[in-house]
Design a protein that fits this description.
The structure is a homodimer of 449-residue chains. Chain A is α/β, with parallel strands linked by helices. The radius of gyration of chain A is 25 Å and the shape is elongated. At the A-B interface, helix 1, helix 2, strand 12 and helix 13 of A face helix 1, helix 2, strand 12 and helix 13 of B.
């Protein structure tokens, strides 16, 4: 057994930083057997030294000067847990240029700058690892780069945001409205004070960009990922989904036929028999399909102090093993292809559409005709319920009052697999029709190939 | 990008061997970008050369002489897919002694000889990888050794035999008897002609031995794993389980509190809300609990030509990367602890017990008294149904005919967490009681800690 000591610096002592500190401590006695070296935490970089000193047993490690770290030759691994794309990016770049390996949980930075940073790491013979940036504790990046490397993957889809999965689970299991479920998520600490990045799908989009890049060996940036959140999902949608044997999940989708990539985040109807349908509450999961592996799924905690630290320290151990064996950058950037990301209008999907229309003879036939004219093949079109408008406000799309006396009906349409651009044009046409009172919802329906 | 060529030999061209041949071919153009080297298949060892030659495009690679391989200095990686513990063991030993790295899917051999072979690999500076030996395509070994290495794991439990999971799924979803479901599994190719190793849990036991050794860093051999199969499970048991909000799965259980290990295979009642409960048909899954990661689960195909080959070639790629970077044996044996495996009588569990007794006043109280005398704490004891014995044969445990006029009742007992030794003694005592007609079933109930 080697007796090498490897110096480590921790940048940031927030939730994940403190978790990483704790996990490094918990592994102190055994790590030498696992990795052939002893890790020595030499610095913890923070902004507020006093507040940080109260959290750790060795206040002498606390510093607010990054120079202490970059100038310490004994620091071989820098663990960046500050987050964001400003100072974190500067620190990571400086560390790599100084030949220090980097482990980070920074999804913002990796999603927007994955390629440049991986190249920089390679130039400097360094490891840059970021398992914790996608789906927290769940091993995703390592399996994609190693165990599943002998596949041509066609699909990687995931529930990669715990906040929205918790909200949708409460809406499904307890019949809550979106706002009520969000309030509960906030109260329980699953949602941040400003939940926008979560509920609008931006957080998931960052993870999709990272996953798609690795799964399809071609760089996908977060700007390539079209994003739709869950704020418009209603209990009615969930009830209709259940009638169809489905639940609604916010899905991060990455799909490739080998010539191009589809990457987007959107709520989707998922059949109950699909493994992702059983992933509830704040759990995350990533489902993979490949030419050899067939289907596989990884699930677990997508966030949290110790779960995220599990992934961070797993990476740190891997870097340390590489140092011991002199093989850093053993697995560097795997984006050796240059596949275009499809425009969203060219993506194909099935759709669930719910429209409120005036209830009169011929309205179903008119809708069916609109779809036909736009090359949108319809699988089912069903009149679900009728009701008398209880005040004029219900009559949202016709202002002239000519049809006030007609009751409303809800029409549910399930399309076949259609081109999004065609579908959107058909919906626009329906929206503009005189008898249309409201487009209630429009949700993709997952279909396995 | 390196232009190194690495010679590979394939031992065996059965289902997994042929799958591996196909996956290596499918990856031929891209592998150099993934691993920095080109793999060159140089030999395929088989017993029947003619039959094998018909399966491949390069019949000149076929040989029936292992010497061709061991004497070929260009062969750096030997892929052993013969199976069994006789010639396969000799070939692996010879390969390692000759400094050739080994990838194998041989669960029999790894389960019985993991320690010795890992030591031999290390002595010779070789990699010995076996991801495919546990749960087929699903990455389990690599995540346990890498991504989850920063954990103290307390539990690794899995559905690691697809045949029995398929049978139990048919029994649950279609109300089949065991024999009927087995016949269907055989017809569909999920069960072998002699299904003993599957249905009696021996195949799962091998995988548990491997998983437990790696999860708890302490060698567990297959002889340490007490094994119980599913042949006695009846549709009645499944119905009762459903009433309790559970399903019945054949679970490979590895549990440790850090001072000892519990390792066994047994059918268990699993709550429907547990992720393993949703793993149906021939799918496998491994559920992990650790101090940092919390809960995680990996699921996918546990067998099959291409899925198993996905894991085999994933390992081959990893070995090749190590060769390119000069760091073989980077992760060698991780069994640095020596924990005892608990005797089964000392294992603690909850139990579901179903007994047929003569239906008379006081019988519940008598059973409760037997449990109390054996320190078995009972959670529920319920009289489920009564029926008149339709012939004398029903009266299995009392031969003297004195209670023939009494009808039968079924009693269902759910215990608290109790010591298996105490429970078995209580059951023996109940079995010997005059009023007991039959111990219908006795199944563990999974309880999270």
């Amino acid at each position: 057994m080697e007796n090498r000591t490897i110096g480590v610096a921790l940048l940031g002592l927030g939730t994940v930083g403190l978790g990483t500190y704790k996990v490094l401590k918990a592994q102190r006695e055994e790590m030498v057997y696992k990795i052939g070296a002893q890790l020595e935490l030499r610095w913890i970089l923070v902004r507020n030294k006093e507040r940080a000193a109260a959290k750790v047993d060795e206040p002498e490690l606390i510093t607010d000067r990054f120079e202490d770290i970059i100038n310490d030759d004994k620091v071989e691994i820098v663990i960046e847990l500050i987050g964001g794309t400003t100072s974190a990016a500067d620190y990571i770049e400086a560390a790599l240029k100084a030949g220090k390996h980097v482990v980070t949980a920074n999804k913002d930075l990796i999603a927007s700058d994955h390629g440049r940073l991986m190249d920089l790491a390679k130039e400097n013979g360094c490891d840059l690892m970021f398992e914790a940036a996608v789906a927290g504790a769940i091993p995703v990046i390592t399996p994609l780069k190693q165990s599943l490397a002998a596949n041509h993957l066609s699909e990687v889809m995931g529930i990669v945001n715990g906040t929205t999965n918790y909200i949708l689970t409460r809406m499904e299991q307890d019949g809550m409205e979106f706002g009520e479920a969000l309030a509960l998520a906030t109260k329980l600490g699953y949602a941040e004070a400003d939940p926008t990045a979560d509920v609008e799908g931006l957080d998931a989009a960052r993870k999709v960009a990272i996953i798609a890049s690795i799964a399809f060996n071609s760089r996908v940036s977060v700007e390539d990922v079209r994003t739709e959140g869950i704020t418009k999902i209603t209990p009615d949608d969930i009830r209709y989904a259940q009638e169809m044997g489905c639940c609604i999940k916010l899905i991060g989708m990455a799909h490739s036929d080998g010539t191009s990539i589809e990457a987007y985040v959107a709520p989707m109807l998922i059949p109950k028999r699909h493994p992702l349908a059983a992933v509830n509450d704040s759990y995350n999961a990533v489902f993979v399909r490949g030419d050899a592996v067939d289907d596989a799924m990884f699930q677990g905690r997508g966030a949290g102090e110790l779960p995220t630290a599990s992934a961070v320290v797993g990476d740190v151990f891997d870097v340390a093993r590489n140092i011991v064996h002199g093989c850093n950058a053993r697995i560097s950037c795997t984006c050796y292809r240059h596949l275009p990301v499809k425009k969203m209008e060219d993506v194909q999907s099935r759709y669930f559409l719910r429209v409120e229309v005036e209830d009169r003879i011929g309205v179903l036939a008119e809708l069916a005709d609109v779809f036909a004219r736009h090359q949108v093949s319809v699988d089912q079109i069903i009149q679900k319920q009728r009701h008398i408008p209880f005040h004029e406000g219900t009559d949202r799309h016709t202002g002239d009052g000519t049809d006030k006396e007609l009751p409303s009906a809800q029409i549910v349409v399930i399309t076949d697999v259609v081109r999004e651009g065609d579908f959107q044009k058909a919906v626009q046409c329906i929206r503009d029709k005189k008898g249309t009172r409201q487009i209630c919802s429009m949700i993709r329906v997952y279909t396995a190939e």
